[in-house]
Design a protein that fits this description.
- The complex is a heterodimer of chains A (about 150) and B (about 140).
- With about 150 residues, chain A is an alpha+beta fold.
- Chain A has a single domain, classed as CBS-domain (Roll), CATH 3.10.580.10.
- In chain A, a hairpin with a 5-residue loop joins strand 5 and strand 6.
- Chain A has seven helices and six strands, in the order H-E-H-E-E-H-H-E-H-E-E-H-H.
- With about 140 residues, chain B is α+β, with helices and mostly antiparallel strands.
- Chain B has one domain: CBS-domain.
- Chain B is globular and about 45 Å long.
- Classes of the chains: A alpha+beta (about 150), B alpha+beta (about 140).
- The interface between A and B is large, with 46 and 45 residues.
Chain lengths: ~150, ~140
Amino acid sequence: MQVCEIMRHDPVVCFPDDTAEVAARTMREHGTGILPVVRRNSGGQVIGVVTDRDLCLRVVGEGRDPLAVQVAECMTSAPVCCGPRDDIQYALLLMREHQVRRLPVVDSDYRIGGVVCLSNLVNSYLAAETLVETLRATCYPVHRELTVSR
Amino acid sequence: MKVRDVMTKDPVVCVSQNSALDAAWLMRTYNYGCLPVVSGPTTRRLVGIVTDRDLCMAVIPRGAAPNAVIVATAMTAAPVTCHPDDEVESCAGLMRRYSVRRIPVVDENGACVGLVSHTDLARRCEAEIVMPTERAFAGTMA
């Protein structure tokens, strides 16, 4: 099974110079906790991802003004991505290795096409043990400071 | 297996009068995604639960100052709870039914004694217990 068969297509995105306020509104409006960050006028080239947790920790947790902080200051740069034709086993491996449960899906020019989440994979043919192993791996981040939580 | 076998005991907590800034600082410092909200430091009677997303959404979309918003505004009051002697299967069932990934654990007096998350279940329990809960989140972007 390929990633494109289960990913969420055409995800809503934001730009690095958007304010935190814009990013949070977008997340709330679209019922998502993650936004790929794309370069303006690039056809959707991914340069980062930002989550509601990033915004919480870096804006609220640092007492900053949501209208003054840009997404570029909150995002994870150069995120781990996968391709639409990748096998879902490979996507799972990436999630486990990098301890994330969501991946932007990009083409060969790093343009966004979708987002695939660990929760998308649970209804696939993959064995329950394999999926739970990946979930376990996302519990304890090795070196990323602020992203994975209890 | 009981909830007491898998839960985080004596979790970091906050009170409803804490600012969103304080709560977010605690989440960052102790690497938590949510905090039980209790009545006070000694009695620790559970009054609510607040997540990182709750704090984000209570402060940021309206451009508020993080120290001017209090936890009471952001939290979910009277959340779903479980007891330390509950079986983990029933706890997983609660997560599924209420679409939550963490459940505060309270004793007979309603005092918060622990916090159990779906990842705690994933680490300690059989896949068959964990998977139905994960399936309940399949349509979301969580």
